[in-house]
Amino acid sequence: MTNVIQCKSWDVVNKEQGAIPLNYKKDLKPLGTPIGLNAGAMRTSTGYAFSQIIHQAINVGKQLKKGQNLVQIKPGATSFENWMDNVFLDVLSSSPKLAPYVFSTLAKTLSGDDFVKFMIGDCPLSIKSRIILALPKVDFILGALRSPFK
């Protein structure tokens, strides 16, 4: 904090902690047009959904403003990104000791901006390719082979 906001002293008033649910969401039967988590906003590998839900809400507003009857909701990630998420979760659940190496490799491979683009979803193929090429090949190939059977 000293370097970033030039604050020389501070007091810790509260501490918080949480857990990101790295799992698969069970679909609920919607009362109307699904939006948010029920419309595929959450990335299974990250638990990240906030910006995807905002984009969905903006798009719904635009569609309604145009008077469109059928509102289409874009999910938070492409099919390929969802597949990558599933393989990622498979590898981490079957080989949890790999997690520190995998996350540190991702941090070294991607810039902060590229990491955010991947987290948000629908990122360029160049970013996806760098991720795939950087991670442990054998473990991720095995995870990819197991993914259709889950």
Detailed description of the structure:
The protein has 150 residues and is mainly α. Among the domains are: 36-65, no CATH class; 79-149, no CATH class. Helix content is 51%, strand content 0%. The chain is built from seven helices and no strands. It has helices at residues 2-5, 50-65, 79-94, 99-109, 112-120, 125-134, 137-146. Helix 3 packs across helix 7. The longest helix is centred in the middle third of the chain and has 16 residues, at 50-65. The radius of gyration is 19 Å and the shape is globular. The protein starts with a helix and ends with a helix.
Q: Topology, please?
A:
Elements: H1 2-5, H2 50-65, H3 79-94, H4 99-109, H5 112-120, H6 125-134, H7 137-146
Helix pairs in contact: 3-7
- Give the overall form: globular
End-to-end Cα distance, whole Å, is: 44 Å
Relative strand content: under 5%
| Contiguous helical run count | 7
Poorly predicted runs: none
Helix and strand sequence: HHHHHHH
Major β-sheet, in short? none
Share of helix among residues?
40-55%
In round numbers, the mean pLDDT is: 84
Say how many strands there are.
Answer: 0
Report the radius of gyration as a whole number of Å. Answer: 19 Å
Structural class: mainly alpha
Assembly state (oligomeric): single chain
